[in-house]
Amino acid sequence: MDDLNDWPGRELDDEALDVAYNVRRKAGPELFERHMARYLAMSDDAVAGLPGHPGIVYDEASGERLDVWGVRDGEPRPAFVFVHGGYWMALSRRVSSFMARMLDAHGVATVVPDYTLAPEATLEEIVRQVRASVAWVHRHGREHGLDPDRIVVGGSSAGGHLTGMTMVGGWQEPLGLPDDVVKAAMPFSGLFDLRPITRVYVNEYVKLDVPKAAALSPELLPAGRRCPAVVAVAEHDGGGFLEQSRRFARHWGVEPLVVPARDHFDVVLDLADAETAASRALLGLIESVRT
């Protein structure tokens, strides 16, 4: 882009940007806490008694860990790598495995990595760690019941942004990975152009300027190989997330999946139910990369 400062929404004042991107304020404290309690309860229920390998260190440099759920002896299973949200500064893998039982019933394993939260880690480091988790699945997945040739990445909110950073090109070769290591992707309510974040409250933690934000924006980076993707967003999401998802879907050459009657926080919980539009879309993506 010729002018890094010419970004959609630049003309809005700071209050309007906060309305567009502060989804926690939009939900209100009571609803937000209820959503967070559901994340934990549904994740605990999903993995209770499920075969897996929790707590594996995937990145020696940071010591960060991931959980593998829903693996069986015999044929390695496709791996859905789910990257949690929390504006890069909250949540964890503990509350992010709510889809594991649904996927297990359909022959798919779930991989949920942690990453070091901001401000302890820079956003560049968080991106590196998430890419390292994908590299771990490719290199070591088979010994843990995962098929390294069927990796699908997804994530919600900040995790949607981090999903986007695994979809773009240029990072795979330095890690010794094939260009198509990520066979398909499903970001939910993601951020794909981070320049607006330089003017909202979360920048107190991630400390981006406009050039750094642009360098970490999937919409502005070379796509490389365009993997199949579903770009999902909630009907009642924050305005900034709705617009960014629609724009990134166009950029990627797909139609956005706008999930009715859902908000920023509960849209991804639909992955716990195989009959929802989100789950059908994810299972369809995974089926499309079966070998």
UniProtKB/TrEMBL annotation:
**Where on the tree of life does the source sit, at the highest rank?**
Bacteria
Assigned keywords, A-Z: Hydrolase
The record, for InterPro entries, names: AB_hydrolase_3, AB_hydrolase_fold, GDXG_lipolytic_enzyme
Q: Where is the Alpha/beta hydrolase fold-3 domain?
A: 80-168
Major enzyme class: hydrolase
UniProt EC number: 3.5.1.9
| Pfam family membership, one | Abhydrolase_3
Single annotated GO MF: arylformamidase activity
Q: What is this protein called?
A: Arylformamidase
Source organism of the structure: Actinomadura algeriensis
